[in-house]
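Bench log, entry 3. Co-assembly request; chain sequences pasted below exactly as received.
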Amino acid sequence: MTIEPNKLPCSYFTEKIPLLLENGTSIVELTVAYESYGKLNKNKSNAIIVCHALSGDQFLASKNPITNKDGWWNRMVGCGKPVDTDKYFIICANVLGGCTGSTGPTSLDPKTNKEYGLDFPMITVSDMVNAQLRLINHLGIKKLLSVIGGSMGGMQVLEWAASYPEKLFSAIPIATSSRHTAQNIAFHELGRQAIMADPEWNGGDYIKLGTRPSKGLSIARMTAHVTYLSEASLTKKFGRRLQDKDEISFGFDADFQIESYLRHQGLTFVDRFDANSYLYITRAMDYFDLEKTHNKSLTEIFEKTKTKFLLASFTGDWLYPPSESLIIVRALSAGGVDVSFVNIESDKGHDAFLLDEPEFDNAMRGFLESVSKETNL
Amino acid sequence: MDRKRLDLELITSLVERKSRILDVGCGSGELLESLKKKRNIIGQGLELGQERVNQCVAKGLSAIQGDADKDLSLYPDQSFDCVILSQTIQATSHPDVILKELIRIGKKAIVSIPNFGYWRVRLSLGFYGKMPITKRLSNSWFNTPNIHLCTILDFINLCDQLNIEIEKTITLSSKNTKSYNGLPNKLSNLLSEEAIFIIKS
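Structure output for the full assembly:
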C-alpha cells in the first residue's frame, strides 16, 4: 500500500506565506494536516493542542484511515476521558516534515513540481511549533488552554512554552527531555544508518525511482520499538517463548515470539511511514537542545513565566527517564514557576504514556480541571 | 475537632487571602486544599512521597516530589508570600538550615511543632523512664521519622540564635488555644502539646 498523504480524510490548512526555518531557509508553501475534536467555544478559550511523537500522526482520537486502527491516544482523549472532548476543543496536527499530509519530504517541491526527497530543508522542533502556530492563528485562537505531548510531543510542548509563553495557559510535557542525550542520538543514528544502507533508498530519491527502502525503515522501527519498551515488559509479554513451534530450529527464522513481534512491527510501520520523513524527524529530535537554541539556562528560559506546568515521567522509562523530567522540574521551581510533577510507577517502558496508567490519567484530569477553573472556562 | 484538623484550621486562619504559598511536606494536600478554598491562595506543595504528590495533582493542586533537606535551595529568594512547614521540622536532618531557608524563600513562614516539653511527655520519660508515645508522636523510638524533636523553649532559643523574629505564637493543648503577639508565656512550654509560630527575618 502506498500513502497518498494529501488525500487522507482530515482537515488541511495551506498558506503561501513562506515559513522561515531555524536553518535560515524557508518553506514557500506550508500545508498543515490536522484533526480536531470537540467544539471551539465562543471566546475560543477552550483549545488544546496535542503534539504527536516521532511515529505519530494527526489521528489522535479517531480511526486512522491508513491502518484502520483507533487513534493513537484514544484512551486519553474523548468524551468523558481526561482530555475531555465534551469540554475542550482539541487539535492534533501532523508535524512539519511528517508524511501524513503536512509539508514534508514526500510533498511536491513548488520549485521542481517533484517530491522534495532530500531537497527538503532540515527542520527542527521549533520549526514544527512555528507551523502549529500558523494553524492556531488561522483558527483565530489567541491563547491555548494547554499544549500536551509525550516524547517528541513533549519537546514541542517545551518549545511552545519557551517561545510563546503568552500563547498558552498551561503546558504538559510528558516522558520527555530538554535535550537529546548521547544515548537518544545513538539509537536514532542506528535507525538512519539502516535506512540509508538499504539499496532501495537510492540516496533518498526512491520515490522518483519507484523503489522503497522498506527493509531499512523496518529495521529502524524494530530498533526504535525496543527502546520504547523495557526488559520487564518484554519478559512479561514474550519471555523466551517460541513462535508457533516447540523446539528451536537451529536457523535464523523467527524462532522466538519477540523476533516475530518485532518483524511484524517493522513490516506494518513501512505501510504508514516514509523513510525520508523518518530521517528528517529523528534529526530534528537529535538537534533539540532547548538551552542551546535559546542561548539561556533552562531556569532563565522559563523564569517567572505565567504558564502552569504539569510534567509526568514513568519509572520504567529508560529512553527519557524520570531524571530528565526532574532536570526541567528543578529549573522551573528555581524560576518561580507554578509546576507539578508526577512520576508514575510503571514497568512498561517509554510507551507507558500511551498505555493504561490510571494514576497518570487522574493527574491529567485533575490538572486540566484546575486550569479550566482558573481560566473560568 | 481532632488535632490535625485544628492545626489545619489555625494555620488557614493565619494565611492572607490570595497570597502565594509554599507548603513544605504538603502530604496529600489537605492544607493546600483548605487554603485554596478558604483563602483563595496560589499554592505549591513539596512532598517526599511520590504517591502523595500524585494525589495532590489529581486534586488539581500544584505539587512536586522533593526533599525539604535538599530541594529548598532551588527556590529563589522571597518567591513566596509565606512558606508553611506544618509538623515536619522534627523529621528533617538540619532544622536550623531549614528555618533559614524558609525565611529566605518566603516573606514569612509558619512553622508548627509538637512540643516535647509538654508535661505528659516529660512524665513519660521522667517518671516511667520510657521514650514518650503520644497522639502527635505515635511512633516508637526505633521507627520514628522524628529525629529532631524539640520543646517550645528550644525552638525559641534557636530562632534567637539565628536572628529570626517570632511575630506570633499560638499554643495548643487539649483544653485551649492561646494566641500571643511575639513569644508565649513561660508556662506554655509545660502545658502545650503543640505550637504554631509565624517567623520572619
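The interface with chain A takes residues 42, 44, 50, 53-54, 56-66, 71, 74-76, 79 of chain B (CB under 8 Å). Residues 78 and 139 of chain B are 35 Å apart (CA to CA).
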